């Protein structure tokens, strides 16, 4: 590599002139004539030369622009023509690979499109295009992936116009497996049908959603359906809070009380517990329901039980549900009864969709950084780049 080439990072260049104005402008041409790209012959003639301008890295806070003299060669042996190819600059691209990578990495690390469009003198749309190009390239190697054995399925909000999306998580490897637009069987049907390795999925973890349950039965025929602890706790709290509202609408608006009611009993300090008990003493029915709720939550949080232990717990749990079915929490009791098997399966198991929830937060941050997405495929690519397949592929 020539001295100049070493500085610029592109081998085989001879620098003719450097001008510093607003940016750094470098005029350069190839040092050597290459062998013919078709026949490897050496008898090349230059037929014409044209000038090509490419953006190439930033030095300090200035963008370096290369003005390259590009010879068009004619091979004396095979009589064919071709243009000089520069290492690190692809044909027809207006920026070098190094420059594009710089933009990708900055954007990937959190620099906004708007900021990059200022520092790198490209449009925000170009930032997005380069970003997509880069991750698609990374992606192409690992596109044929098999379903994870332990799958989490959950919905999240995409846009007001396009609605909700479904997240499929590889719970074993802590990765997003995929995101798909829609949350109904109809909108996911095509995708699910084409999914490879559906029959080897062993466990599907989900919230208590009928749609996802019927999807799991249909498309993952060998998987056990396991309720998601995280969602079940939330559901119990929701039902409890709405019953509370019926008993004491005023108390239900008290933020301090709400926080005490929501928390697990064992997380309360002594004086907090005393305050709560004092309040509940005025509402005997509510108090009884609160006690039942705490018992319920203890059941829901059981995990990694042996089959034997689970079978001992089961009748006690069912009795509690029977009691609740006669109480103002009957709707909750009915839901839990209809999900009995997935809930009991949860006791034998430790994974939960809490991981997925974490990914949803990450996706939301990502969306904000990009000032929102309109194109779902762009969004999907980015989710997979951030939370997805890299690790999965390495492990498979
Ligand atoms: Zn040739």
Automatic annotation (TrEMBL):
Residues 151-383 form the Transposase IS204/IS1001/IS1096/IS1165 DDE domain. It holds the Pfam family DDE_Tnp_ISL3. InterPro entries: Transpos_ISL3, Transposase_DDE. NCBIfam families: transpos_ISL3 (NF033550). This is ISL3 family transposase. It comes from Zhongshania guokunii. The lineage of its organism: Bacteria, Pseudomonadati, Pseudomonadota, Gammaproteobacteria, Cellvibrionales.
